[in-house]
Amino acid sequence: MTTPGPLDGIRILEVGVMLAGPYATMLLADLGAEVIKIEPPGGEISRQVGDSYFASMNRNKQSMCIDLRSVEGRRRLGELVANSHALLVNMKPSAIRRLGLTYESLREFNERIVCVALTGFGLDGGDDPAFDYVIQAATGVAAMTGDPLGPPTLPGYSSVDNSTGLAAALGLLAQIVSARGGQVDVSLRDVMFSQLNYRAAAYLNEGVEPQRYPLGAHSYYVPAQLFTTADGYLALFITHDAFWAAFAAEANIDGFATMAERASRRNEVLDVVSAVLATDSATGWERRLRPLGIPVSAVRTLPEALAATPEVVVTAGQFELVGSPIRIGGYEPSYRPAPRLDEHADSSGEAVRRAPSS
């Protein structure tokens, strides 16, 4: 017998675009929530990006086409809201308000509905375009990333959108647990500032501006960065003296016993460590250091990483995807393919009749 997911009986409506919103609701769907993706006539825009892109953000959902600008669309939305726990929408604030997708507009249908607005700068922050890379530039993330002698650098994936999706899912569940209903406001900008936690605190309290170090070196811990080896790059992350003692013994390095000493003599430490690591390959050092409990990894490409970790890959219809990162004891998610456009229009009556659980 299949064990119900922890969110079984929770219905969530999504008016999501591209990544952040759809990613948030997909994680909730993986945990057993019923997620109804409300799409405009013609479909959500990410369907145009590519089949695998859409599949990676929208598995385990239903799809209904509703023209939210029409009277009939408003009526259908109200019926769904009346029997749902939450609505998550990521659009410009003006569009959210114009389409009536706020708590103030929807409470007439359901006082306990939770409305999550996922925007660039907050519901009251205006309509300036706010894409992932723009927010990285605006919040200082790009400026602190990359080689110190090179240009600002962006990571190779959508770090802002994914992070904000996680925060939005957390806010949605927190307000459902409160059983009060209401508006939840999550912005790309605020999430990234939040994730700059110790960097921002160091500047706000000690006036310490972030610096870029070669090979992505950590500002506090030494050695904690990428290193060139005899074959490939190695990530070595030594955060305390016990790690250093184990590494130094294996690498035959003397001295630099304390964290404070290693930080104050950064360049000397890195010169010694770099010379030693150049004597073996990245995978060779990984094999030698991991049994000692030292945080270390050879730098791998995504294909190499997926081949080495097949357990993270699941099948949803015709697509292979990375599965849910949340493991719940006794529960194994099922992975249904992303819905065809308006696939569940005929079941909308049944969906409306099922009242949300308390």
TrEMBL record:
Superkingdom of origin: Bacteria
Keyword Transferase recorded: yes
InterPro entries: CoA-transferase_III_domain, CoA-Trfase_fam_III, CoA-Trfase_III_dom3_sf, CoA-Trfase_III_dom_1_sf
Protein known as: CoA transferase
Biased composition (Basic and acidic residues): 339-358
Keyword set, alphabetical order: Transferase
Pfam families in UniProt: CoA_transf_3 (PF02515)
Region (Disordered): 333-358
Organism whose genome encodes this protein: Mycolicibacterium cyprinidarum
GO molecular function: transferase activity
Transferase recorded as keyword: yes
